[in-house]
Task: structure prediction
Amino acid sequence: MESIDIIKHQFFSQDNLNFILKLVHNNKLKMIQKSFDKTVLHDIIFKCSNNVFNSFAHKIYSQKQYIHNNNIEELLITLNKLTLDSIINTYNNKEEAEEHLTKIKIQNTTELNTHVSKELNNTKELNPELNTNVSNIVSNTVSNTVSNTVSNTVSNTNLSNIVSNTVSNTVPNIVSNELNNTQEFIDIFSNNHFFTNGEYKLNINRKYKRIVLKTLELYNNLYNITNFNNKIEIQQNNLKVTINIPPGCYNLLNLLKVLQDLLNDKLKHSKFKITYNNFKNRINISAENTFNFRFIENDKQKYILLRYLLGFSQTEYINNNNYNSDNDCIMNIYDNLYIKIINPELLSINKYSSNSFNYYEKISFDYLNSFNQTIKINYDKNIDIIQDDLLIEIYYRHIIHDQYYKLYSKLLFNILFEIIY
Result:
């Protein structure tokens, strides 16, 4: 197993995630434990781990020659420290946001009291017979439910209607807008919505002022070998055969074993052998007799090519009985998925950019080790648009070639939206 894969496997192991959780639970960080419930804290730890590893992985792939088994433990310690720092930053951001909201509430209440007092003073000038302490009564009660409290307090006088009308006309715009908003949470399951040509049409079924992406749950049933990238043509002497690799989720060693068995089954007297060099991340395909082989490729822009996964740069190789791959092998192509909102009038909503590719949000997870499992990620991201339906596409990319591919196979996912309308 390659060093980067060893690090990834150990870093995302349950034992290591539990170790990070214990670090959070120590005396110095108890305020974080109290601030988040257990489920949210686990989600934060997993998301922070993903973010740290994704930042780290890019450097690792470009500097693999400096990583050896004797410094893997040191690298894991560094990753855990970075993850802990990320968790602390998440907590600090939460505290700052709550403090900011508290200040806004205090400011709104103060402004409201000031407006009501001014209007009551104007009212008393027009109606001298009103009791002079009414202003104080209203001022003390207005910070709760303004209209009802004031109305109940002065129900024995004709001031009730005056104050009720005055308050309704002097509430600050920001408070009035919040009172007029209706909030609702809706779950959207991908199977219940229209899907064609890699595009999901999510029916919100209402006009809204703001929509917030809260959580996404994705069932990882993704195949890195599909009917689009599973064919190799082998020619030996006058015999030409096509090898069809069964679609599925493969790690590299499993794929090489399946390919070797298929070759020996089709060409029984050739004794094909496929080996993997763990130190160079290269593979070798050999046989007793000379053979040619060609990767069968159609619609190259619609899927990642098999030769990219196996590290071969050419489509065809001829007149030899021994072939070495010339690039890195990579099978975990879905570790990062990219959500893209494709509505033409909403191009600016895809705020993140990489290599001229714009996207709205990224889903990061350990693809190979979480196959057939459900991945849950928390977001809390605004989409400030007014639209009947939300149209999205999901992409993945080959990290070495830095090319993005749209997912044409339908995914099973559930999205929780907060709707304000």
